[in-house]
Design brief:
With 342 residues, the protein is mainly β. Helices cover 11% and strands 52% of the residues. A hairpin with a 4-residue loop joins strand 8 and strand 9. The relative contact order is 0.17.
Length: 342
């Protein structure tokens, strides 16, 4: 009888072990991220189906409002711009509106959703007229025939760097959507008739990211891309529109030290390639690579090129190009850091 009890006592223990093992194998449900519309609004090489739906200005003839693809400016280069051009004879306040819109896309499976964009405001030659800009992002639900305001921001002063913005969004499975961005630019100082030029508000990396459990596809016919848990666009949003560099940059002799962080939300090691630039496509330092664990910060030392040292030393700020790779995702950003000499 004792032997029988011992044998019977083993059975539930083995079952428990098998159940626990099965639980470990199953693990937590992972989320996959799908990006809309197709291409994620990176504007790399073209407008990617975005178009202007409205452009107007309150000053006839002497004010022109227009929008279109800008291949020279972006994060990285390539963006969609809302431009206002003022003639020399304007002696009053001006106000323009430019509305741009994405191609339609269908969300097959709804989940936690975030809209991201990088924006830049450049006053150009009209800076003396103190131009102000306001943009409003609207999600158009074609299926329901409704619209919802997702994000609005006023830009009282020129912002020469691309800055990332995020907003939570609610979407419904099976619905067809489009993203609309309306930009208003106006002067707060009346023209003297002697000033003219163009002011621009540019947008880059405009995308709606939808997280759904693995095994579900977040895309429908004719939709955006993204099959893994970390896409290029998601990585860009995690490191921020200005990258993961922590200023200032320290110059000591011919060595330049920069702090680089890998956000914990990336969920894996960041492989960073960094280079200082006198301007885009004009290197000031050698290229340096570093691996940084999630949630950690590392000092990266760059060697300044001998021919560029004099120019670098004279600068108050220096431009950096940073490329971050995590898993199969990749993101490239440009950022200026204050330069401190020691």
């Amino acid at each position: 009888m004792r032997s029988t009890r011992r044998r019977l006592g083993v059975v539930p223990a083995v079952c428990c072990a098998l159940v626990a093992g099965a639980c470990l194998i199953a693990g937590p449900v992972q989320a996959a991220t799908t990006t809309f519309p197709a291409g994620g609004g990176t504007f790399t090489g073209g407008a990617q189906g975005w178009l202007v739906t409205d452009a107007s200005c309150n000053v006839a003839v002497l004010c022109t409002a227009e929008g279109g693809y800008d291949g020279s400016n972006g994060n990285p280069p390539g963006s969609f711009a809302a431009n206002t051009t003022i003639g020399l004879n304007v002696v009053t306040l001006f106000k323009s509106t430019v509305t741009v819109q994405s191609p339609d896309f269908t969300v097959a499976n709804a989940g936690e959703s975030t809209l991201h964009l990088d924006r830049q405001f450049v006053g150009g030659a009209l800076v003396d007229l103190a131009p102000q800009a306001t943009y409003t992002v609207t999600l158009i639900d074609r299926t329901a025939g409704s619209k919802s305001e997702v994000l609005t921001e006023s830009l009282p002063a020129a912002s020469p760097s691309f800055i990332g913005k995020d907003a939570a969004v609610t979407v419904k499975a099976g619905h067809r959507y489009a993203i609309s961005i309306a930009t208003e630019v106006g002067s707060t100082v009346a023209g003297t008739g002697l000033l003219g030029g163009t002011t621009s508000v540019r947008y880059d990396n405009v995308a709606l990211s939808v997280q759904t459990p693995n095994g579900e596809s977040g895309s429908g016919a004719g939709n955006g891309s993204g099959t893994g848990s970390l896409t290029d666009q998601k990585l860009l949003s995690l490191i921020g529109g200005n990258g993961s560099l922590v200023g200032p940059a320290i110059l000591k002799g011919s060595k330049l030290t920069v702090k680089v962080r890998c956000p914990a939300k990336v969920g894996r090691t960041c492989k960073v390639t960094l280079q200082g630039l006198l301007k885009k496509r004009k290197p000031a330092t050698a290229v340096r690579k570093a691996a940084i664990r999630k949630g950690k910060t590392k000092r990266v030392v760059l060697k300044v090129k001998p021919k560029a040292l004099k120019k670098v030393t004279a600068k108050k700020k220096l431009l950096f190009k940073e490329t971050v790779r995590a898993g199969g995702a990749k993101a490239t950003v440009y950022k200026r850091l204050k330069l401190v000499r020691r």
